[in-house]
Design goal:
Elements lengths: L2 E7 L4 E7 L4 E8 L9 H11 L1 H18 L7 E8 L1 H8 L4 H4 L3 H7 L9 E4 L12 E4 L9 H10 L8 E5 L4 E7 L2 E7 L20 E7 L4 E6 L5 E7 L6 E3 L9 E2 L1 H13 L3 E2 L2 E2 L6 E2 L5 E2 L1 H24 L9 E5 H6 L2 H6 L9 E4 L3 H11 L4 H10 L2 E3 L6 H15 L7 H7 L15 E4 L13 E4 L4 E5 L8 H5 L5 E5 L5 E6 L10 H5 L13
Parallel strand pairs: 1-4, 3-23, 4-6, 7-19, 9-21, 10-14, 19-20, 20-22
Antiparallel strand pairs: 1-2, 2-3, 5-6, 7-8, 8-9, 10-11, 11-12, 12-13, 15-16, 17-18, 24-26, 25-26
Helix pairs in contact: 1-2, 6-11, 8-13
Length: about 550
């Protein structure tokens, strides 16, 4: 049997599928729980790579991918082709090539550092040359980037959704930790990337998890209470219990009773939408007796969860509005929105729009699955060639808006933060926009007037007959901490429980960090908690 592997290097984790090249049948699917490099977003990953060393970051990635491929349980020497997709940062770390040109926007800084940007126009390389094991004859297809901001994942988002064929203005968003978005107007493309953070994929949420079997993924309001839905082994959402959200009392058991182990981002979005609609949530306060929003099997949403999700939603809406303004448009000018990625597919599109995850003026929403995996599969089957992607990248002319430096984005995000985290009433939203000289957002469209088309049942295709295998990606980073007194204040401070302090000989202690659970350089609470200031996580080694 001849195999191909489609590999999606996402910011929050990796996904791959083994495919019989001749029959085009998917024979196995495997995903990682998290990304193996410490951090919750692409900026964290790059910071880690630059401070700990690109070789260390590359080693964590390649090690996780080798473990992921083993989980497919196929004859690896029979793999002929691996098609990979991801943003420029992930693909550069995967190839172990220069990343400083991606991290620094200023040309003068790059010149001072002597940084020369490597070519990123796509390549075909030997799998063994980058450390992929047991596949001596396999070739790796690496798609091109358009610019250092617009990578293979954005190309997949645009090619797979056909937005370039649209005659009216439309917007497409790949929902994830780093939410890429593209606005098309009169053949011109305006792109942006919002560092939404991991909350919309279930991370940084107290009971959160990525979309996987056992994840609570949807919540619906019924006349009895809230009906929960839980993903089964094929990642299909199956009915769970009907719950009283104020108390957690089970009103009616469903087929997935007792099987929920956490909640994915789409479940959080549904719970927030329902809670706001029913007056249970007044951002960020939850108005139940214990201050918690209750779902099935003891899973709860906290006020902190509301804030974390709100920050991500706020970044998205600030991004939409900034792009619209950049293109000389406003809310009512863009009626069609495409949603891609796992969060974009599994979420209830109307609920997502109600709380700000979709451009406010959209009256038609089209939901896609994983466009990165979709494009990788087409590369394996020869339905798209590397030359096709290179031609597409060359022809694609886009205006990129750097949200991080855009004054309008900063003003909009401050309004969003006030709404989600500082108790500002929603009725004051447009008044705040007016203070910043920004046009108001029109009254919300009746959800029943919004047309929603869902073009896939599951984020990953062909998983109906083969179980999705989930692996932990964490590699242990460890080392002796000179001067450590063993108080363990650092491990107690770690929000992800990623750090452990272990006695090593007389008056000596070793720090061990699970790399995939560590929040990375953006957190560093452990270092700040050290009373002797001797812990430096970047000095720990694999």
């Amino acid at each position: 049997m001849r195999y191909g592997i489609a590999l999606d290097l996402g910011t929050s984790g990796f996904r791959c599928q083994a495919i019989d090249i001749d029959s085009k049948k998917t024979v196995a699917t495997a995903v990682t729980e998290r990304h193996p490099i410490p951090g919750m977003n692409v900026i964290d990953h790059v910071n880690f790579a630059m401070k700990a060393g690109e070789d260390v970051a590359n080693g964590l990635m390649i090690g996780a991918i080798n473990n992921l491929f083993k989980e497919l349980n196929i004859d690896l020497p029979s793999v002929e082709v691996i098609a990979v997709c991801g943003n420029p940062f992930q693909l550069s770390l995967f190839q172990n090539i220069e990343i400083r040109d991606l991290a620094y926007a200023g040309k003068n800084m790059l010149k001072t550092l002597g940084v020369v940007s490597p070519p990123r126009m796509g390549d075909i390389i030997d799998a063994s040359s980058i450390g992929l094991l047991d596949m001596p004859d396999a070739k790796v297809i690496i798609p091109p980037s358009v610019t250092h901001e617009i990578g293979a994942d954005a190309i997949a988002m645009m090619m797979m959704t056909d937005i370039l064929e649209e005659t009216e203005p439309c917007i497409v968003v790949d929902y994830g930790t780093n939410a890429e978005m593209a606005l098309v107007k009169d053949g011109n493309i305006y792109t942006g990337s919002a560092a939404a953070g991991p909350a919309l994929e279930g991370q940084e949420i107290e009971r959160g998890m990525l979309a996987a079997p056992g994840a609570l993924s949807e919540v619906e309001i019924t006349d009895k209470g809230w009906r929960c839905y839980v993903l089964d082994d094929t990642l299909a959402a199956i009915e769970g219990d009907i719950i009283d959200p104020l108390t957690g009392n089970v009103i009616e058991e469903g087929p997935m009773h007792g099987k929920a182990i956490g909640i994915t981002g789409t479940g959080v979005i549904a719970a927030l939408s329902n809670g706001i609609k029913q007056g249970i949530i007044d951002q960020p306060t939850i108005k139940s007796e214990d201050g918690l929003l209750h779902l099935q099997d003891g899973i709860t949403i906290t006020s902190r969860d509301v804030e974390e999700a709100g920050k991500a939603i706020g970044a998205l809406r600030a991004g939409f509005l900034t792009l619209l303004d950049d293109a000389g448009l406003w809310v009512d000018d863009v009626k069609k929105a495409y949603m891609s990625g796992a969060s974009g597919l599994y979420v209830d599109a109307r609920k997502a729009k109600e709380i700000g995850m979709v451009t406010p003026g959209a009256t038609e929403i089209i939901q896609f699955g994983n466009t990165s995996i979709g494009m990788a599969r087409k590369l394996i089957f020869g339905e798209i060639s590397l030359d096709d992607l290179k031609d597409f990248a060359q022809k694609l002319k886009a205006t990129h808006c750097m949200f991080a430096t855009a004054p309008m984005f900063k003003d909009l995000y401050s309004v969003e933060y006030s709404l989600w985290c500082s108790g500002m009433p929603a009725s004051e939203y447009n008044n705040m926009l007016q203070i910043y000289g920004i046009k108001p957002i029109p009254e919300a469209i009746d959800p029943s007037q919004i047309k929603v088309t869902r073009l896939a049942v599951r984020d990953l295709p062909d998983t109906e007959d083969c179980k999705v295998h989930i692996i932990k990606t964490g590699t242990v980073l460890s080392g002796i901490v000179d001067g450590c007194i063993g108080c363990k204040k650092c491990s107690k401070e770690c929000p992800e429980r990623a750090l452990e302090i272990i006695p090593e000989g007389v008056s000596q202690y070793r720090a061990e960090i699970q790399s995939d659970r560590c929040a990375g350089t953006a957190c560093r609470r452990c270092e700040q908690a050290c009373p002797k200031s001797v812990l430096n996580t970047l000095k720990l080694t694999v």
